[in-house]
Amino acid sequence: MRIRPGGVIEKVSWIIVSILILVYSYRENLGRLNDPGPGLFGFIVGLVLFPLVIIGLRGPSTESIETQFGSLPSVCKVMISVVLFGVLLGGLGFLATTFIISSILFMDKKSLFSRFWPVAALSATAGLYIMFVLLLRCNFPGGILEKLLVIR
Amino acid sequence: MQFPRGNFGEAFGDQMMTVDLLLTGFRVAMEPINLLGCFIGVLTGTMIGVLPGIGPIATMSILLPVTFGIPPITAIIMLAGIFYGAMYGGSTTSILVNIPGEAASVVTCLDGYQMALQGRAGPALGISAIGSFIGGTLSVVGLMLCSQPLARWAVKFGPVEYTGLMLLGLIAVVFLVRQSVLKGLMMVCLGLFLAMIGQDIVTGRPRFTFGVFQLQGGIDFLPMVVGLFGISEVLVNVGTPENKEILSTKIKQIWPSSLDLKRSLMPILRATGLGFFLGFVPGGGVITSPFFSYALEKRLSKNPESFGKGAIEGVAGPETANNAASISGFIPLFSLGIPSNVVLALLMGAMMIHGIQPGPLLLSKKPEMFWGFVASMYIGNVMCLILNLPLVGIWVQLLKVPSKILFPSIVLFCLVGVYTVNNSVIDIYVMAFFGIVGYVFRKRDFEPAPLAIAFVLERLIEESFRQALTISHGSFKIFLSSPISFVCISLSMFIVIYSFLGKKIFKKRV
Q1: What are residue B207's phi and psi, to 5 degrees?
Q2: For residues B435 and B433, what is the distance between their CA atoms, to the nearest angstrom?
Q3: E strand or H helix at B206, and its extent?
């Protein structure tokens, strides 16, 4: 799939960022030159960035450049998995969450009904558990599995 | 120990002291945990050097969380091992697959792959490992000899000199990375601003938090770099079709013939000097030095037409140069506290997280750390040689690992690793945010490397800048009053003006 992200969005974003830096730095108190305030350095950074963005605006437009996002579904899958890991970790715990997320990551259309993804997900979960919990002694939420074990 | 006074006596005393400190360093480096750290580092480095699509920057950022559970010196030894190990491993993919495993191994493809096609993959791999070993080891000697005098000189630096030096470092990095200087400078500004979010370094008052409570502690370095380099690397590579054609011929006779060795000797020595010098300069020394070495060897060769058709000098020179440059880059980091490339910026970030401030005082306050690190590099280079020569068959097999296993594993490692640092889910969201930001930046041809370097250096630059202004009662003239600062600022301005106007003027003249 080919989409045009648009150089305009890029340029406008940079202008907004540079203006934000200038405005917020000014609001943070610039102080005086012999007694610089917390905002002075940020204001100078903004002052440097703004003309750079303007020079960039005058340069050849990148609107005509077609940026290829050929792997957009895969990118979405990875990003959803990353966010989902954060959402599920507290409730489901380390083992269950890691297994679910690794299943999503290893699964694809070709291997949907094969043994590849469950085996890969299980191995990855076991490997991470051994490395981070047993060897490095890191703490993770026990989650639902721990609760079930405690009740029993 | 007392040494006689006078120039000779002092020089002799210095040398004896260096030997003594180096022996102490070997004692530190030979401790089992440090040996293990070094081995894991060079093994991982060689592995990711072989694998195209993932480089030392991404690997170091992914492995940073793991280092928190181990002593600081072991962590630094391991992370450095990844860097120079990757330089060794990068050549394998260039020679056998014609795809550079590392940006620094691009040039090796030209003659290395041709040699492989002619059935000489073994000598090509052998000479690249031997050259890397010689370049790396001689560069460690240079690191040992140069760091101390430079650090002694740098101790005298005040905030004015540091502001100038760091400005020059940032500008030079932007100038030498492979992208437009304008975009590089924009990324530097963004990196500086992101690092300012959190608490003011003087008053401790929250600033630029936009009313978000979680931002009061600032943006954590680790989730940011793991997102920018680790996750975005996966996002760029995921879903793209694999196009690896591994040469099926059996690799025999790894050790080069005496004629090959004779032809490679001078290119290796020249590349060591060239790589050492270029690695010292802030910017892409590791990436540019192989190109310079290749051009130099072609110019000096009696048969320049053989280059690109399997000339062994075209493999020996560039592979030596990138290793020499990767190690000499540590000199400005240890003696001045200025990272000359993004990998060293990551290492500096890791050191700071471990409570170690790289710079001139490190050598005098924690000599066992510096000398332990230097000694580990000697050991690490020997390990790399052993790993790369007899075990090349294993590395070739590694090229067959499909990306559908590799990339999900990297994502999982990033997720779990980032969480363990603060046991905070917020870090995962920060990583996700910077992952997508890094991906968009790369797609729009904005390299994230200058942003990361600026982020690491911001605190030092701002502190020095504000101190200098306070000392001078608000006069900017102070930055021109010190010769070092004057030279650095003049050079920075020259670089910026040259990069904007120099090319246009040159084109007009042509």
Answers
A1: -145, 155
A2: 5
A3: strand B206-207
In chain B, what are the domain boundaries? Answer: 20-239+253-509
Query: Mind listing the pLDDT tens digit for each residue in B278-336?
Result: 887 766 577 778 888 998 898 888 888 888 888 999 999 999 998 898 888 888 888 88
From the CA of A150, how many Å to the nearest CA of chain B? 22
Judge whether B187 and B398 are in contact, CB under 8 Å.
no
Which pLDDT value is given to residue B201? 84
Query: What's the rounded Cα separation, in Å, for the pair A103 and A118?
Result: 6
**CB proximity under 8 Å: B 377-406 to A:** 404-405
Interface check B504 vs A, CB under 8 A: no
Give B-chain residues touching A73 at CB under 8 angstroms: 239
Q: Which chain A residues are Cβ-neighbours of B196 within 8 angstroms?
A: 41-42, 45
Rounded Cα–Cα distance for residues B233 and B229 (Å) = 6
Put residue A37 in one of left, alpha, beta given phi > 0 → left and psi -120 to 50 → alpha: beta
Residues 126-145 of A with CB under 8 A from B: 128, 131-132, 135-140
Nearest to B474 among A24, A34, A78 (CB): A34
Which B positions 427-486 lie with beta carbon below 8 A of chain A?
428-429, 431-432, 435-436, 439, 443-444, 461-462, 465-466, 469-470, 472-476
CB B181, CB B175: distance < 8 Å: yes
When scoring B183, B193, B462 by the number of chain A Cβ atoms within 10 A, the one with the most, hence best to mutate, is B193
Buried b (16+ CB within 10 A) or exposed e, B178-192: eebbbbbbbbbbbbb
SS3 for chain A is CECCCCHHHHHHHHHHHHHHHHHHHHHCCCEECCEECCCHHHHHHHHHHHHHHHHHHHCCCCCCCCCECCCHHHHHHHHHHHHHHHHHHHHHCHHHHHHHHHHHHHCCCCCCCCCHHHHHHHHHHHHHHHHHHHHCCCCCCCHHHHHHHHHC
Share of chain B above pLDDT 70, in %: 89
Cα angle: B68, vertex B70, B73; to 5 degrees: 105
Count of other CB atoms within 10 angstroms of residue B198: 18
**CB of B296 within 8 A of CB of B317?**
yes
Specify the DSSP element, H or E, that contains B322. helix B313-328
B207 half-sphere exposure, CB direction, 13 A CA radius: 27
- In angstroms, rounded to a whole number, what is the distance separating the alpha carbons of residues A47 and B163? 18
Q: What is the rounded (10 degree) CA torsion for B438, B440, B445, B447?
A: -10
Supply B89's token pair: 């491993």
Residues of A in contact with B413 (CB under 8 A): 128
Measured CA to CA, the distance from residue B317 to residue B34 in angstroms comes to 31
Query: pLDDT of B340-353, one tens digit each?
Result: 888 888 888 888 88
**Structure-token pair, residue B448:** 């994230």
Whether residue B241 has pLDDT greater than 70: no
| Chain B CB within 8 Å of residue A53 CB | yes
Distance CA B461, CA B480 (A): 16
> Beta partners for A36?
A31
Q: Which of B461, B460, B456, B446 is nearest to B224 (CA)?
A: B456
- Which of B207, B411, B473 has its CB closest to that of A82? B411
- Residue B186, chain A, CB below 8 Å: the answer is yes
Dmax (CA) for chain B in angstroms is: 72
Beta bridge partners of A68: A2
Specify the DSSP element, H or E, that contains B150.
helix B121-154
The CA distance from B124 to B111, in Å, is 9
